[in-house]
């Protein structure tokens, strides 16, 4: 028969197992607190690094900015030549194709097929490149529609009404808009002008669609690999929007509400949601590309909807707006509205009317716009100069900050390993 003392080892054993489980829980809780503390310190480090990069600009630290810019430029060139060396077979194929086209171009003579399509091909490539620049922007907000395509459409519109036709001298177009000699002036409709500028407008829109691909591929790669870049502000913004979307009582500003709406539209509606977002002038469309990449939307669904929206739907809206604004009959109607404004209305009307008459006379006689000094033309030239200068400065800042970001990330990774 068992005595009372025979149960003591069992009780003691059970007590030791309980203390072990307690120690494990305490150790797990301690490790969790340590991980949370480490993660918090990491986020603070990333935040400080980001602030340091934001201060690396030409007007705050010119010497350091230029030094980092030059180093990054050399790094990009070195990386480029290394890739050329690695992919020398592909480069050899490209060079062979170029050499073949060059031989055919010289052999067939000036009336050959390549000579016939050379000018429109290079011209279309130029507009595609401007569209890519406008979409990517390198953080400058550079919009080449305002700088190049919009003024070109306005110039075609004004000259079409001046000539009474959109059939300009083919050999001079698009560098110079020269009326056909002996042509009978007729009625020019908005649709005629839209058809005349359709090719450059489509190429520019296609370029803006191509410029939306980097955010898409960046987010898609991050989702597939599971590796998150701590310095990627776009992905961080997407996560913040996803976290704030479910908050009921939080007061959100208009911009945040717009981003949440864009996120939901693309995620829930799919192809037609992307098409709708791309079809209107939309500063939040970058978020659509990141959202599509994050949720692994198929490439052709994203790019097809973006291409149709930007190169076809939105471009027709923008073309129609520019042509409408610069059409002579609507300009005169606008001037008549200015004339009835009390105070400065009549004097402003006289000034604008005289300036339009002078400009029209110059177009008719073929004089240079430099003669007589067109003030609006000079203002636009200064505006373009300032925009290009700002673009160059921002490229310098962006490359310098990229160099610093890599150095900061390498330092953080080294500290993690230690």
Residue-averaged pLDDT? 75
Overall strand count = 0
What is the percentage of strand-forming residues? Answer: under 5%
**Could you state the oligomeric state of the chains shown?**
single chain
Organism: Oikopleura dioica (Tunicate)
Biased composition (Basic residues): 14-27
Biased composition (Basic and acidic residues): 28-40
Region (Disordered): 1-40
Walk me through the structure.
Residues 14-27 have a biased composition (Basic residues). This is Vacuole membrane protein 1. There is one protein chain. This protein has 418 residues and is an all-alpha fold. Among the domains are: 75-107; 122-211, no CATH class; 215-315, no CATH class; 374-418. 77% of the residues lie in helices and 0% in strands. It is built from 16 helices and no strands. It has helices at residues 8-54, 62-86, 88-107, 113-136, 144-163, 190-196, 198-211, 213-225, 233-244, 254-269, 271-278, 285-294, 299-326, 328-339, 345-365, 375-417. The longest helix is centred in the N-terminal third of the chain and has 47 residues, at 8-54.
Compact overview of the structure:
This protein is mainly α and about 425 residues long.
């Amino acid at each position: 028969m068992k005595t009372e003392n025979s149960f003591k080892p069992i009780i003691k054993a059970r007590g030791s197992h309980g203390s072990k489980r307690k120690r494990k829980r305490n150790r797990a809780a301690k490790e969790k607190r340590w991980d949370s503390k480490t993660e918090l310190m990491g986020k603070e480090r990333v935040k400080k690094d980001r602030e340091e990069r934001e201060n690396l600009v030409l007007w705050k630290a010119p010497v350091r900015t230029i030094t980092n810019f030059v180093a990054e430029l050399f790094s990009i060139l070195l990386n480029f030549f290394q890739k050329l060396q690695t992919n020398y077979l592909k480069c050899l194929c490209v060079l062979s194709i170029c050499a073949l086209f060059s031989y055919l171009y010289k052999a067939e003579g000036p009336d050959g097929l390549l000579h016939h399509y050379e000018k429109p091909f290079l011209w279309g490539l130029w507009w595609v490149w401007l569209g890519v620049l406008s979409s990517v922007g390198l953080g400058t907000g550079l919009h080449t529609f305002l700088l190049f395509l919009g003024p070109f459409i306005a110039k075609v519109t004004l000259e079409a009404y001046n000539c009474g036709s959109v059939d300009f001298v083919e050999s001079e177009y698009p560098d110079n808009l020269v009326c056909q000699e002996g042509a009978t002036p007729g009625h020019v409709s908005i649709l005629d002008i839209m058809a005349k500028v359709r090719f450059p407008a489509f190429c520019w829109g296609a370029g803006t669609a191509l410029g939306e691909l980097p955010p898409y591929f960046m987010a898609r790669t991050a989702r597939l690999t599971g590796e998150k870049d701590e310095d990627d502000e776009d992905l961080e913004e997407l996560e913040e929007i996803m976290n704030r979307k479910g908050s009921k009582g939080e007061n959100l500003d208009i911009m945040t509400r717009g981003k949440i709406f864009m996120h939901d539209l693309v995620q829930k509606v799919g192809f037609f949601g992307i098409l709708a977002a791309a079809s209107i002038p939309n500063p939040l469309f970058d978020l659509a590309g990141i959202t599509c990449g994050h949720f692994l939307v198929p490439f052709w669904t994203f790019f097809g909807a973006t291409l149709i929206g930007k190169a076809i739907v939105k471009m027709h809206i923008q073309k129609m707006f520019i042509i409408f604004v610069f059409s002579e009959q609507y300009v005169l109607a606008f001037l008549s509205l200015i004339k009835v404004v009390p105070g400065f209305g009549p004097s402003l009307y006289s000034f604008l009317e005289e300036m339009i008459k002078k400009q029209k006379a110059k177009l008719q006689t073929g004089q240079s716009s430099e003669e007589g000094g067109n003030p609006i033309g000079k203002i636009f030239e200064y505006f373009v100069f300032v925009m290009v200068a700002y673009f160059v400065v921002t490229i310098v800042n962006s490359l310098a900050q990229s160099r610093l970001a890599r150095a900061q990330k390498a330092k953080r990774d080294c500290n993690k390993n230690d």
